[in-house]
Amino acid sequence: MLEVSGLECLRGRRRLFGDLTFTVRPGELLHVQGANGSGKTSLLRILAGLSRQESGEVCWDGANVRESREDYASSLLYLGHHPAVKDDLGVAENLAVSSRLAGMELSRKDMNAALDIVGLGKRTGLPARVLSQGQRRRLALARLWLDRRPLWILDEPFTALDMHAAALLEARLEQHLVEGGMVVLTTHQPPAIQKDFLRVLSLSA
Amino acid sequence: MSTTGILRTLLWRDIQLVLRRQSDVVATLFFFIVAVSLFPLGVGAEPALLRSIGPGVLWVAALLSAMLSLGRLFAADFSDGTLEQLVLAPVPLTLVVAVKIFAHWVASGLPLVMLAPLLGLQFNLEVQDLGVLAFSLLLGTPLLSLIGAIGAALTLGVRGAGVLVAILVLPLYIPVLIFGAGAVTASAAGMSPQGALSLLAALLVLGVVFAPYAAAAALRIALE
User: Fold this and answer.
1) Given an 8 Å threshold on Cβ–Cβ distance, is B80 in contact with A82?
2) Topology of the domain comprising A1-75+151-205
């Protein structure tokens, strides 16, 4: 369970948001809404422990995430704006490296299955440099089909995806929620996910 | 997966990335070779003079070419988002940084160590002095990578980072230069290089212990 209380974020002298309090329980997807520049990415980075908040607390299972960094890291998957794909590594190598760095032990079969799902199964040997923007995004998201960690924080995961891939991603998110996972994401289109899972947080600029 | 497993993957990845982009390494090495070779051409082929400036020239060139490669250390990972993933990996960031520094040294420092004795021949250095040169670089180049990592992490995402790194890091390289070149000069003058080498080794121990800490802290700040 992710508990956030009294969160305040400043950028320079500007107050992006303040006194933000919410909880994300197992099986919930929190859709963070807001105009460009309203602090969605800043909020997600604070939740992931990458940025520092001005005041307030972020707690994971009752423990402050700044104090139990490594525990938190092993239950958190964060995918930011940049897909974290290395141009000089192959498609399969990229997936293998990024999941191993996140501490996952995977067989080649699992990885090929994940790449098949995102539609890169026939391109496993290609260097990532030749992929299109959407394919890079798919490669970055392939990790979601392997990751069993409970909390996913996804910054604009639907960017550059075609309709088919977006539907696949929504199905995967729904499956994760059914299994008791938690998702916090930002996106400009409301995700097509069962209403019982969905909760909305609006940041006003 | 265990901590060592994660760190081994990181080391493999960094070395693969270097192997697949060899032009970067070759460019730094070429700079080293050319910079060192310019001196005998410029100051003339006076054996005694070359012998006395040789150690200093070789060490300064090694210093500058080590600095050239610092931009590669974190910048690529920073711009493609991998650095965020490394910060969030379930291992201490200090160890991640230490592994990255080691990989950087293998790709940039180690080739210098192997090449330097060959270039030292141009300066009329004896075989024994060339041995001391290689050994002093073996102790000194990891230190250059360690100190440089702090500078590279501090200037991450800053405009004009290349120049800023030079300003930050070069003054910190001075002790390494003094003891490194001092060891070779002592050997060339027929004295024992042991004192300078011991101090260099002591600096290396200090660097190994503290530099990854400092660089990790700087990386966290750069990401905020």
Assistant:
1) yes
2) Rossmann fold (3.40.50)
